[in-house]
Design a protein that fits this description.
This protein has 99 residues and is of the alpha/beta class. The protein has four helices and three strands, in the order H-E-H-E-H-E-H. Helix 1 runs parallel beside helix 2.
């Protein structure tokens, strides 16, 4: 509905598999912090190894301050706290892509 093509993954390992397969087409990642098999923090660091400049927006039930502390020194392109609306996701992704 927002004009974005979306790829999904059930967990961190699948996310990395999908990312590697579509690396050249992916322009932004919305990454949940709490995932099975490979958590969001580990997935984030692996994404950075694969393609350091890809914008990553973290999604979490934790507060933005907690996420900022956890990712201190890392470049995050945005944060969205759960629960969130469709509009909030679109706005956050737009900001990550366009500043």
């Amino acid at each position: 509905r927002a004009g974005l093509d979306v790829l999904t993954a059930a967990d961190g390992r699948e996310a990395l598999t999908v990312f590697r397969a579509y690396e050249d087409e992916i322009v932004c990642v919305l990454l949940d912090l709490t995932m099975p098999r490979l958590d969001g923090e580990e997935t984030f660091h692996e994404l950075r190894r694969i393609k350091s400049g890809v914008p990553v927006v973290i999604s979490s039930g934790y507060s933005e301050q907690e996420i900022s502390e956890r990712f201190a020194g890392e470049t995050l392109s945005g944060f969205i706290q759960k629960p969130y609306s469709f509009r909030q996701v679109v706005e956050t992704i737009h900001k990550a892509l366009h500043g």
